[in-house]
Amino acid sequence: MSEHQPGAHMAAEIAEQPRVFADLVARRHEIASVAEVISARRPRFVLLAARGSSDHAALYAKYLTEVLLQLPAGLVSPSTATLYGAQPDLRDVLVVSVSQSGGSPDLLEVTESARARGALTVAVTNTASSPLNGAAELSVDVGAGVERAVAATKTYSATLLALYLLVDAIRGGNGAAAGALGDQAAATLEQSSDAVAEAVRRYRFVDRVLTTGRGYSLPTALESALKLAETSYLAARAYSGADLLHGPVAAVDAETAVLAVTSTGRGGDAMHDVLDAVHGRGADVVAVGSGADKVSAALRIPVAETAEEVAPILEVLPVQRVAHGLSLARGGDPDSPRGLNKVTRTR
């Protein structure tokens, strides 16, 4: 048996995403059937429960819920149930538990508790046979296939797409904004390769990275920081573009590497002044997204343009490749980051 090449699994899984997206869009009817049940129950509020990368996907779903459904949405703090035993009244509330593995005990307990307290519960997982799916009343199968690298790539982006298709179907949409994502993902991976290589070269020796974005792109900034930290062991910190100007910008200087996520739309437009300020302080700014050519940056990584609400599904792809490339360039193996396991069990 041949020896494992560092990063081979993560590279293959990044490359699989165009097919994963196309397959998931083709199964939209399955997700629409779940949405029909939710719509009939007319929830007054939405709560989202998740950990790690899935927490960033849940934040994306929060934006979708508040903007597209015009419903209030919040992120669950699992410890309120698991450590403190809180039992709020959740009648007429939709609780969506997001977990790639569906195996985290705290999310399982939160889901069971929420269902017992009257919530309509939905599990969004990549493991159809998981305990979480069994605990929830309804389930959405992400369908990304087995992911062997520890760092989540295809499962994260496919979870975003599944959540978009779910929310869009609840509002009566037909998934049109997601219809071409398979082809757009392939184009993004191909057209961004040179800029990704340059970003790896620029960031190879940095110790500190700041990531930033606004609106729908904030979850991508958070996921980017996590990927850089877990694969390349960088001190990576994510900020909303709005929060960045409220104080943290004082720590930005010529030694600061800034990865800014800026796609076409209101969120990207709101980043212009932020990046003017950061660029003016001498920071090395790499802008990622379909709006990257409109902001102050030293390097721009292009992403295919889409409707703003689905942009995060594409804009994370080149960032995954940056994390992969940096890990290898710094002597690591992004398939097996030190101290990490594929499934993290917390309570």
TrEMBL record:
<dbReference type="InterPro" id="IPR035466">
    <property type="entry name" value="GlmS/AgaS_SIS"/>
</dbReference>
<keyword id="KW-0677">Repeat</keyword>
<dbReference type="InterPro" id="IPR035490">
    <property type="entry name" value="GlmS/FrlB_SIS"/>
</dbReference>
<protein>
    <submittedName>
        <fullName>SIS domain-containing protein</fullName>
        <ecNumber>3.5.-.-</ecNumber>
    </submittedName>
</protein>
<dbReference type="InterPro" id="IPR001347">
    <property type="entry name" value="SIS_dom"/>
</dbReference>
<dbReference type="Pfam" id="PF01380">
    <property type="entry name" value="SIS"/>
</dbReference>
<dbReference type="GO" id="GO:0016787">
    <property type="term" value="F:hydrolase activity"/>
</dbReference>
<feature type="domain" description="SIS">
    <location>
        <begin position="34"/>
        <end position="176"/>
    </location>
</feature>
<dbReference type="InterPro" id="IPR046348">
    <property type="entry name" value="SIS_dom_sf"/>
</dbReference>
<keyword id="KW-0378">Hydrolase</keyword>
<feature type="domain" description="SIS">
    <location>
        <begin position="196"/>
        <end position="337"/>
    </location>
</feature>
<feature type="region of interest" description="Disordered">
    <location>
        <begin position="327"/>
        <end position="347"/>
    </location>
</feature>
